[in-house]
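We modelled the chain as a single entity of 229 amino acids. Its sequence is:
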Amino acid sequence: MSTARFANEPAAAMPERDTWLSRYGQSLRFALHVITHPFDGFWDLIHEKRGTMAAAHTFLFLFLLTRVLKLICTNFQFISAPIQHINLFEEAASLLLPFLVLCVANWAMTTLFEGKGRFRDIYMAMCYALVPYSLIQLPMILVSNGLTYEEGSIYTVMLSLSVIWCMFLVFVGLMEIHDYGPGKTFIFIIVTIVGACVILFLMLVFFSLLSDAVAFFVSFYREIVFRLN
């Protein structure tokens, strides 16, 4: 009896795994609908549960990966980055930290502006809004190595298109999540940016004070050890 029970457990676990993978794949494909039909897409993404956090993490990772590959692999005619001095983790963190702070600031400001979005919804929408960045700029990394300097306008236009597309998706995504009008959404985004700057400033002050405190206690400890010896 026990042997039969253990033999049946993997078979029972397989449908659950297939369901998760199927939902993950559907949420990845749904990103194409979101970026081409943002008004309906973001509404369904949040309210109809068409998105997943796993897909959101994937898109954020691709965004960071695209940035790193862009610095390393883009034709030197179109980007001036000292490759020998680039720290990949620092480059990724320089985008990840502001992104997360913006999500936190946006969520924090919902109380003042009576927004309806949760932090999970805001994070997911912002990650889905990053899809055009990777979708356009990853291929353009390869294309840049086949372009001459005179043809660089094509490269610049495509990069600008990806950024503008992402900004538009962020605007629509926040508008749909919080159920705002365009005017209130615009003001809300400005307040969010200000709030994010305040959070970053407070973080810098905190870590600066922490660093000074650690340095003081280290020097104090060394002084005591020196006098005791």
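As a brief sanity check on the tokenised model: Residues 2-228 form one domain. Residues 1-9 have pLDDT under 50 and may be disordered.
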